[in-house]
Amino acid sequence: MFKLLAALAASTLLVVGTASPASAIAYGENARDGAYRFSVLLTMTGLPTADRGTRDSSCSGALIAPTWVITAGHCFRDAKGRKVSRTVAESTKATVGRTLVSGGRGGQVVEVIAVRQSETTDVALAELAAPVTGITPLRVATYPPSPGETLRLTGFGLTADQTPAERLQTGRFTIDAVGDSLLETSGTAPQDDTSPCPHDSGGPYFRTTDAGPELVAVVSGGPGCPHTGPDYSARTDNISDWITATTASTGHSRLYLAALIPLTLVVVALLVWAYRRTRADPGSRPGLGR
C-alpha cells in the first residue's frame, strides 16, 4: 500500500505539471442550503498559457482564517506548469459561504492578493484582500488521520457527466492508507464510485468532531472520475505549524502596516509644511538674509 503512495508522490508531480485542474465530485450529493459555509470556490480569470494566450479555470478550497483560504498547491502554477507563491491569473476571486455557484444569496466574494506554497506537499494558502466575516473558518487538525476513518469532502468541480456543478457538492469517503504527505481515500456515499472530479482540487476532506468539523487533507490528484477505489489528497495535520505561523504572521504584518500608514502620512505632511514655510520666508534662506 505504501509503495502505491510512493508511486502517487511521483504521479502528483505529473498532475502539478499539467495545465488541467482537478475536478468536482462525481456521484456526490447537493449540499443543503447554509451547510459547510467554509467551503470556497476559487475562480481564476486570465490564466497565462504556454502559447502566450489565456484561459479561465477554478479550484475548490476552505476558509481556515478570516483572510486565508487553503487549497491545492497546483492551483497556482505559471504558464510552464510550475507551482509559484503568487497569484497567476489576471484576477483570482474567492467565493465563500455560498451554496449555489451563480445567483445564490449571501456569501462573500473577495480578491486573492497573495499565495504561500508548502515546501513539503501539494498545499497552498491564499491570502484574501479583506477579512471574511460571519463565517466560522474550518479548524485544521493537529493529529494524524487513521486508516478506516470516515471523512467528508466538499467541492465545486465537475459532476459525473463532466458538467460544472450548479451548487456545492459533498460526499463521504474512507481512508485506505496514510503516507507521510498523502492519503488514499475511497468513496463510500452516496455511492462507492463517489469521487473527486476536475476543479475539486483543493477541496477539503474533514472529519466531524464534538468541537465541530476539522480539516484533515485537501484534494490533490487521482484517476479520472467517476471511479471506485482511491483518490489522493495532501495531508494538512503535519503542516499545521506552518499553516498557523503563516496565517498569524501576516495578521501581525497587517496591524503593523495599518499603524505605519497614518504615521507616514503625518511625517510627509510635516515635511511638506516645513518646506513651504521655508520657501515663504526669504530670511531663512542662506545668502538672502539682511
Automatic annotation (TrEMBL):
This is S1 family peptidase. The keyword Chaperone does not apply. It comes from Paractinoplanes hotanensis. Gene3D superfamilies: Trypsin-like serine proteases. InterPro entries: Peptidase_S1, Peptidase_S1_PA, Peptidase_S1_PA_chymotrypsin, Peptidase_S1A, Trypsin_dom, TRYPSIN_HIS. It comes from the Bacteria. PANTHER family: FI18310P1-RELATED, POLYSERASE-RELATED. The lineage of its organism: Bacteria, Bacillati, Actinomycetota, Actinomycetes, Micromonosporales. The chain crosses the membrane at residues 255-275. The keyword Transmembrane applies. Residues 1-24 form the signal peptide. Residues 25-248 form the Peptidase S1 domain. Belongs to the peptidase S1 family. Keywords: Disulfide bond, Membrane, Signal, Transmembrane, Transmembrane helix. Pfam families: Trypsin.
